[in-house]
Design a protein that fits this description.
Blueprint lengths: L7 E2 L9 H9 L7 H18 L4 E6 L2 H12 L5 E6 L2 H12 L3 E6 L8 H10 L5 E5 L1 E2 L4 E2 L2 H8 L6 E5 L11 H4 L3 E5 L10 E6 L1 H9 L9 H8 L10 H17 L1 H21 L14 E5 L6 H12 L1 E2 L1 E2 L8 E5 L6 H17 L8 H13 L2
Parallel strand pairs: 1-12, 3-4, 3-5, 5-8, 8-9
Antiparallel strand pairs: 2-10, 6-7, 9-10, 11-14, 13-14
Helix pairs in contact: 1-10, 2-10, 5-6, 11-14, 12-13, 13-14
Length: 385
């Protein structure tokens, strides 16, 4: 075994970090109640609107993405109101848990793991199931590697004046073409540890005018995650409470990089890596977990027959320092996931696929060395000019 093993993240969060943004955060010290920080915050918010592909205001909280998810529930709803939830994995189930925590009645449309939420069934509930105050779903479900059709669902919900459309795009942002203004997404949520290429600790949420009006009527309690209060404070370049200043500086640098690169190129990079990974998996004699509508953010791959995915994940880390993620909950041991969001390029993918071929042989799955790498190379050549 070699003496040096460099650990590399191939997880759907946290993800590899943009070094330039990290260095900037280490060398820049600002107090949050100064003109310098207010100017930086305003520019960061402008760049967040670009990143979100929206003209709507975007608020920032020092929390994980789940904090902004909880805020969406507490800011939009009142006791006794009903919501419609589409779930296709562990993070869709989080919407259900949040609704239960606040005593909100939730009608749930559930897809089997590996399949997208059936939008036709969501539409039927909206047409015949009585009044709903909000519809909640994931853009991409990172526990299963599936993408949901938020465009079609958003256009249905936008025709309902008293119902808001909420999308958890924590792994969808920067990996998926999302058009919140065009598709009627009233609240869209993101997190710093994903495609923005910086550490965990910040959550983002865009707020439409329709959502703003709904918040004025909402009666659920909230304090820290008060969207309206934060929106008002950020309009002045300030947060309501002490912000994570170093992370905001880091985000400012990362968003400048993304704007220079181009949002569409960031998304295309994830799409290329995802397509190459899916084809590489098949070439290695494996199958992809997402039966249809696979996501660009992460690829979920079924474990080889008779071999637990946990063993593959452990061997990848022990031999090569490559950190993949096992399945979650009931999927643990049955599939593993390779992420494509964050600071990845095509060489990173070739490296992890080459390592995976070796590990598969070591755990007892017959694979021709070079088969997965070759399949990925062919995808690259197919898309290169």
């Amino acid at each position: 075994m070699p003496g040096i093993i460099k650990e590399r993240l191939f997880t759907p969060g946290p993800t590899p970090l943009l070094l330039e943004a990290q260095l900037r955060a280490l060398t820049m010290t600002l107090h949050h109640r100064t003109d310098e920080f207010r100017a930086l915050m305003r520019e960061t918010l402008d760049n967040l609107r670009y990143y979100f592909n929206t003209k709507n205001d975007v608020v920032v909280f020092a929390s994980s993405g789940t904090g902004a998810m909880e805020g969406a529930v507490s800011n939009l709803l009142s006791p006794g109101e009903r919501i419609l939830i589409g779930t296709a994995g562990k993070f869709g189930e989080r919407w259900v848990q949040l609704a239960n925590a606040y005593g909100i009645e939730a009608v749930v449309v559930e897809a089997p793991y590996g399949h997208p939420v059936p939008i036709a069934e969501m539409k039927k509930h909206l047409e015949t199931g009585g009044a709903f105050r909000a519809v909640l779903i994931q853009a991409t479900e990172s526990s299963t590697g599936v993408r949901n059709d938020v465009e079609s669902l958003g256009k249905i919900v936008s025709a309902l004046p008293e119902c808001c459309f909420v999308v958890d795009a924590i792994t969808g942002l920067g990996t998926t073409d999302l058009r919140p203004d065009e598709w009627g997404i009233d609240i869209m949520i993101g997190g710093s540890q994903k495609a923005t290429m910086i550490p965990p600790g910040l959550a983002f949420a865009s707020i439409s005018d329709k959502a703003g009006r709904a918040m004025e009527k909402s009666k659920l309690p909230r304090y820290y995650f008060d969207y309206a209060k934060e929106r008002k404070s950020l309009a002045k370049g300030e947060s309501s409470y002490t912000p994570a200043t170093s992370l905001v500086v880091c985000l400012h640098g990362a968003l400048n990089y993304i704007k220079e690169l181009g949002r569409e190129n960031l998304i295309a990079n994830a799409a290329l890596l995802a397509e190459a990974t899916r084809e590489a998996a098949v070439a290695m004699g494996l199958t992809n977990f997402a039966a249809s509508s696979p996501a660009n953010a992460v690829t979920a791959i079924n474990a080889p027959a008779g071999i637990e995915s946990t063993k593959v994940v452990k061997e990848m880390r022990a031999r090569f320092g490559a950190i993949l993620t096992d399945g979650q909950g009931t999927m643990k041991g049955h599939m593993f996931r390779i992420a494509h969001l964050g600071y990845y390029d095509f060489l990173d993918l070739l490296a992890v696929l080459g390592a995976l071929e070796i590990v598969l042989q070591k755990v007892g799955h017959k694979v021709e060395l070079g088969s997965g790498v070759r399949a990925a190379q062919n995808v690259y050549l197919r898309h290169s000019s």
